[in-house]
Amino acid sequence: MTSRFKQALESGKFVVTSEIAPPKGTNLEIMKHHIELLKDKVDAMNVTDHQSSVMRYPSLGGCLLVKEQGGEVILQMTCRDRNRLALQADLLFAASRGIQNVLCLTGDSIILGDHKQAKSVFDLDSSQLLETVRLLAKGKDLGGNDLDGPVSFCAGAIVTPEADPLEPQLIKFEKKIEAGAEFIQTQAVYDLDKFKKFMDYARLFDVKILAGIILLTSAPMARFMNKNIAGVNVPQILIDELAGAPKGQALKKGIEIAGRMIQRIKSEKMCDGVHIMAIGKEEVVPDILVAAGIL
Amino acid sequence: MRSGKGEEIAMIRSITQRKPDDEIEGLLQGSSRIFIIGCGTCVTLTRTGGEPEVQAMKKSLSGKGKIITGHTVVPVACDNLTHEFLTEFGSQIDPADALLIMTCAYGVQAIARQLKKMVIPALDTLFIGKETGIGQFDEVCSQCGTCIIGETGGLCPVTSCHKGLVNGPCGGTNHGKCEIDSEKDCVWTLIYRRLKELGRIETMRKYQRPRNYQKEPKPGKVLLPTT
Question: Are residues B90 and B165 in the same domain?
Fold first, then answer.
């Protein structure tokens, strides 16, 4: 059966996904609250996999929570922590429990996280993980053996439209599509005119594009991202807008900016939808959707 | 070493780093009489186990109450004939409780095989590398057994990419630098520029299959066929 998320992508509607992060520990109350809040407002929730290499409750566990609460879910999988046996086994497990969407990522460096002395794996990379998903769907594993029981995923990957230099990223983007990516989430975009240029290129390929929206919470946070996050460029005009917000109102301004951008992406039909990353502020995602005129 | 043209010959070297003092002290606990061995090759170049470093170690350990029965810098510690060189130091080595060896692990193991003495490494061996600038050493090959540099313009992503990625850069690359260090070049940017320069950018589009780790046996071993 085709996943609800894939059906949404194929329906031609403006698709909205939202990122959701599992907790540090076993207290799942806040995550359950976020799931409850978002499950009927977005087309799918995308559960992070030890984001920024910080050890947390697993993405698979988070995905099962979303399923239990009746939401549609995308399993994030990085290649950092598992070799090809473990990755395939987790895909089998996910498939057996009704998880039908997977986002294949390389994964951040261990050095960025909170277990800096750990061994990083990278037995496969994101393109190879996508190929693996496709292979499992054919009933075979990477060892060439037959599998008993179906495995089917709607697989996706990411791209950084403002990378510098850009061409190596675009070559990899095309490799990911060739390896079976059906949808692509982008790194956060803020300069929509630049994004439109990327889309002129991306439209040449048979793949759905979800524009990445990272909620800006303050001017310092925007400056921090410009300095530290690869491929993120918040234009000065937006930083000024955040800085000009009345005291205590920067988050409200950030919600307004995110809403405004989503509205423009949607009304100008720039791409197939958006992926909202509200990093730690998942509870305001509905406010962003209201600001965007979607809710 | 110099070539006939007067240029410095930068051979591959075993690159080492001195262990912290407290770790060396811990390893020497219970050994009061110490014989120190340095090496005239790689560790002299990296200034981790040459004559000055052996002298400094002698001074430091003497200050901590150890009896230094003797010390020497052997020409090439990993050589099978190192024990012959050490024969003349027999009267200093025999009374020692331990040999503190300021060479790479190849040297430590060669000496351990050749002498009936407890060996204590004073250095950690990091990689086999080259001196690429004054005082700078870089790993250029990690001996993975599945060489792909014929498709990457002679630059090795398995070694020089922090994640060892073979299908192109990750999303962490930023202005041509690496996610983990804004001073470190992203090797995939370098590969891209090299292939572009050579008019072979299409090579970058080739899907590289998952690596075959059987080609990198652990432990590494090769037997030449008998003729």
Answer: no
Q: Which residues of B touch A112 (CB under 8 A)?
A: 179-180
Locus of tokens 């090496």: B39
Q: Which domain does B190 fall in, by range?
A: 141-206
Q: Which chain A residue's Cα is nearest to B213?
A: A123
Domain A4-215 listed as CATH 3.20.20.220: yes
In a domain, B7, yes or no: no
Contact A122 B188 (CB under 8 A): no
| DSSP string over B116-148 | SS-EEE-EEEEEEEEEEETTEEEE-----SS--
Query: A-chain residues within 8 Å CB-CB of B211?
Result: 123
The shortest CB-CB distance from B170 to any of A106, A111, A128 is to A106
Query: Sheet of B119-121: strands edge to edge?
Result: B67-74, B33-39, B98-101, B119-121
Chain segment B194-220, per-residue pLDDT in tens: 999 999 999 999 999 999 999 998 999
ipTM (interface predicted TM): 0.95
Residue B191 lies in a domain: yes
Residues B166 and B198 in one domain: yes
Q: Is A59 on the interface with B (CB under 8 A)?
A: no
Question: Per the CB < 8 Å rule, is B205 touching A127?
Answer: no
DSSP B14-73: EEEEEPPHHHHHHHTTT--EEEEEEESSHHHHTTSSSHHHHHHHHHHHHHTT-EEEEEEE
Whether residue B6 has pLDDT greater than 50? no
Mutation target for B interface from A136, A172, A174: give the one with most B CBs within 10 A: A172
Instruction: Indicate if B63 and B112 belong to the same structural domain.
Output: yes
The residue among B127, B152, B180 that closes a domain is B127
Q: Is A163 on the interface with B (CB under 8 A)?
A: yes
Burial class, A138, CB count within 10 angstroms (exposed 0-12 / middle 13-18 / buried 19+)? exposed
Same domain, B107 and B149: no
Which residues are B99's β-sheet partners? Answer: B35, B119
Instruction: State whether B22 and B116 are in the same domain.
Output: yes
> Least CB-CB distance to B188: which of A131, A168, A187?
A168
In angstroms, the Cα distances linking A245 to A239, A249, A250, A257 are: 10, 6, 5, 12
Hey, which residues 88-127 in chain A have their CB within 8 Å of chain B? 105-109, 111-112, 120, 122-127
pLDDT, tens digit (0-9, with 9 covering 90-100), for B144-175: 999 999 999 999 999 999 999 999 999 999 99
B202/chain A closest Cα distance in angstroms: 9
Q: Is residue B114 within 8 Å of residue B83, measured between CB atoms?
A: yes
CB B72 within 8 A of CB B99: no
Question: With an 8 Å Cβ cutoff, are A171 and B204 in contact?
Answer: yes
